[in-house]
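User: Here's a structure from my thesis project, written as structure tokens. My advisor, Dr. K., wants to see whether a designed sequence matches the one we expressed. Can you design one independently, without my sequence as a hint?
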């Protein structure tokens, strides 16, 4: 079901972060709630800067307890091995049957660098250049197995067709990877790559490699300008800009129930806070904001972070999403089974197939 403005489907995602929670079962409950609302995906943040569970491992636990919702952990490209990062994302895609994504981030602090002791903290520009190289080599490693590389022929004892395994032989600024991967090509070909493109240093990486770019801005004019810039930059990199989804990131506080949104939080738009743009009000006004920003081409959708995870996600699904569905602006069922299908993105061709080196 497409919305009336002709700009394509509305995409909605939510964070299921629960700081201080060490029970994966509570993450399962939130992901199931998001799935009941038909959300494209949920994100789970991860950082070396504070204690917490390993996001890919938690979402691997969520995977068999859900059926359709996309699962997108944050994995930093700083101080980590690109080979291991891509294998973790590919593994999540396998255990979720094609619902994995990867929110690409960098680690900027000296404290995070000291955890590893291998190198000092680096400037943001260098870190995001490295992140782009990791995103690039990850796609190459996902393609290093052709889709039919596994033979599994018991009679001959052949497990693999070695002609369909490829060395990537990639040399970046800070690392080199030979390949091939140890994990067969993921069900989606390439799991979905997500980049927060709010800050300038991340935008080149987002425009070149991301399937989904997040922008945390408090005005529709800012969001529209960033979306147009990202699409233009994607085209400059030789991409079809229609393969990039730009979602506005908002904190949402729905604690006021059905009351009108506070001044500056409802139809007038969110308010910038130290934690990011915040909407505070009721589900009805949030639905109005989402509908208006999507219909005028401001954004392809929204990534919403509940201030109170369970309360606000319930009100989002039962209130805001239900209203959008009633108006024909958001799906009432998942048309496919993979995250790429939810986002309307094709499964990429293998860059090494057909005799390519």
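Assistant: Designed independently from the structure alone:
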């Amino acid at each position: 079901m497409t919305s009336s403005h002709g700009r394509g489907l509305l995409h909605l995602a939510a964070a299921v972060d629960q700081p201080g929670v060490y029970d994966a079962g509570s993450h399962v409950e939130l992901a199931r709630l998001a799935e009941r609302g038909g959300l494209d995906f949920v994100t789970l943040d991860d950082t070396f800067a504070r204690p917490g569970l390993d996001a890919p491992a938690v979402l691997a636990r969520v995977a068999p307890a859900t059926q359709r919702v996309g699962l997108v952990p944050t994995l930093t490209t700083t101080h980590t091995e690109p080979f291991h990062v891509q294998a973790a994302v590919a593994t999540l895609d396998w255990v979720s049957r094609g619902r994995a994504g990867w929110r690409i981030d960098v680690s900027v602090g000296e404290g995070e660098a000291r955890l590893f002791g291998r190198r000092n903290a680096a400037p943001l520009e260098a870190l995001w250049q490295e992140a782009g190289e990791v995103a690039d080599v990850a796609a190459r490693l996902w393609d290093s197995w052709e889709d039919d590389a596994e033979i599994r022929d018991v009679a001959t004892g052949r497990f693999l067709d070695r002609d369909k395994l490829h060395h990537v032989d990639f040399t970046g600024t800070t690392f080199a990877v030979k390949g091939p991967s140890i994990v067969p090509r993921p069900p989606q070909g390439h799991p979905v790559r997500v980049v927060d493109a709010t800050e300038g240093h991340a935008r080149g990486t987002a425009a070149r490699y991301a399937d989904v770019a997040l922008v945390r801005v408090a005005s529709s004019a800012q969001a529209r300008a960033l979306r147009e810039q990202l699409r233009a930059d994607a085209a400059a990199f030789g991409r079809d800009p229609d393969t990039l989804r730009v979602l506005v990131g908002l904190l949402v506080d729905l604690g006021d129930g059905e009351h009108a949104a506070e001044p500056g939080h409802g139809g007038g738009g969110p308010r910038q806070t130290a934690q990011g743009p915040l909407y505070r009000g009721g589900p009805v006004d949030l639905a109005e904001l989402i509908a208006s920003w999507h219909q005028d081409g401001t954004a392809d959708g929204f990534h919403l972070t509940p201030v109170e995870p369970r309360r606000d996600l319930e009100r989002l699904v039962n209130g805001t999403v239900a209203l959008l569905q009633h108006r024909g602006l958001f799906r009432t069922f998942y048309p496919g089974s993979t995250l790429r299908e939810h986002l309307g993105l094709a499964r990429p061709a293998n860059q090494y197939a057909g005799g390519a080196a």
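When you compare it with your expressed construct, this may help: The first strand starts at residue 11 and ends at 15.
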